[in-house]
């Protein structure tokens, strides 16, 4: 399977070009997919545009019913999704079974209810002679581009609020991890979603993605990925004044104040930095630790890192899977090697033996890094945590905000006043207190600064996928309105 267009799975494309979906844990080919070109993009957009005419008029209850059936089908197929997601993205099976798939099912169930709760301002007389009401309407065809780190969850985050609000979607997943996105679209179809409401095209960004961005019948673009590509998306959207939703890079600060529960902070740092092998924009990447706790924090994280088990992704005992590709592993390794020249590197390295066939990299703690160094400033997107000390609360907040990104952060403290200050002053779309990473369907996920704008999940996401229309009714039934005299007067 390569594409899902107008309710049908397609195995070929007009370009004749193909790509192998590789299992990062051992380098084996899972499946060879055909890559989309102009013909497939056009077919998908036209299918979505045709489906919009009826889907946008479906009642909230009708859309909700489809999504409720969709959630039940996903529950029935949960293990199949977990297995495929594990193989194509190199995720430990425990992660896909306990996080990726259950989270996706919960998202679908949430939007089944949220579809019936599109709110607007109360209908009322805001002018003495008129009644005003608000209509919240779908935008049209949404062109979505999703990344490779969470293929299934990102497909859900892109598709669900869009179709719950009455839009139709053309999704381009990363060409190296398209399989669960295609399965997701098929499951939605099996739940009764009409043909053309959700379409998935597998292709490269510079080809299929670029065509989707500039297509005149695409009314909105939703992109998750790097900040550099996000800028390209904005430039493309400007050519036809499309609405844009962006979730971009991150360099999340993990601020440990002097009154923090040190054991909790150490465990939180290990979990928050290693989730999805660190390939997560919200992962803890900058541990900013009070100088009084810093030595013990470094020792504690290093000790736990050394106990993390790397292994085959199909083994439930495996903690840490491979990076998504050999090329990405080498990029991470090169950044760590450069850091050895200016910081203290603990752990890290490419494992030998049975794991050498996969793109594995050991957990790495880079201590005593300078705030302006590459390992602190740039996204590594791997199992790497940079750590450095601070001496005052003012310095901690300053260091936390010393980044172009603003997606996520955490503050570790027992002091309620200190936590209130941190959550207020740290410029991130999400700030956790005494935890790092948990997300829930009812709460939004989005960023500030160069981490983008707009929200995934929650009812706040409907603000991205709907337009607000003001409808005003005259209440006087008079041909001659009092305000007309401001414009013209009739002769006596």
> Looking at this structure, what is the CATH superfamily of the largest domain?
Aldehyde Dehydrogenase, Chain A, domain 1
Main β sheet profile? 7 strands, mixed
CATH class bucket of the largest domain: Alpha Beta
CATH topology of the largest domain: Aldehyde Dehydrogenase, Chain A, domain 1
CATH architecture of the largest domain: 3-Layer(aba) Sandwich
Q: How many domains?
A: 2
Give the count of helical stretches: 15
Number of strands: 24
Radius of gyration: 25 Å
Q: Which percent range describes the beta-strand content? A: 15-25%
Write down the overall mean pLDDT.
96
Weakly predicted, low-confidence segments:
none
Report, as a whole number of angstroms, the end-to-end distance.
Answer: 77 Å
Helix content: 25-40%
Described by the principal axes of the CA atoms, the overall outline is globular
Structural class: alpha/beta
Instruction: Give the spatial strand order of the biggest sheet.
Output: 14-15-16-13-12-18-19
Keywords:
single chain; 492 residues; alpha/beta; Aldehyde Dehydrogenase, Chain A, domain 1; Aldehyde Dehydrogenase, Chain A, domain 2; 2 domains; 6-stranded mixed beta sheet; 15 helices; 24 strands
Description:
This protein has helices at residues 38-55, 60-76, 78-89, 93-114, 151-164, 179-190, 205-214, 227-238, 262-274, 294-307, 326-339, 374-377, 393-400, 416-425, 462-465; strands at 3-5, 8-10, 18-22, 29-34, 124-127, 130-138, 141-145, 168-172, 198-200, 220-224, 243-247, 252-256, 284-290, 344-347, 364-367, 384-390, 405-406, 408-412, 430-433, 445-446, 448-449, 452-453, 455-456, 466-474. The model has no long low-confidence stretch (mean pLDDT 96). The N and C termini lie far apart (77 Å). A seven-stranded mixed β-sheet has the order 14-15-16-13-12-18-19, with helices on both faces. A six-stranded mixed β-sheet has the order 9-8-7-10-11-22, sandwiched between helices. It is of the alpha/beta class and 492 residues long. It has two domains: 3-248 and 451-471, Aldehyde Dehydrogenase, Chain A, domain 1; 252-433, Aldehyde Dehydrogenase, Chain A, domain 2, CATH 3.40.309.10. It has 15 helices and 24 strands. Helix 8 (227-238) links the parallel strand 10 and strand 11 (243-247). Helices cover 37% and strands 22% of the residues. It is globular and about 90 Å long.
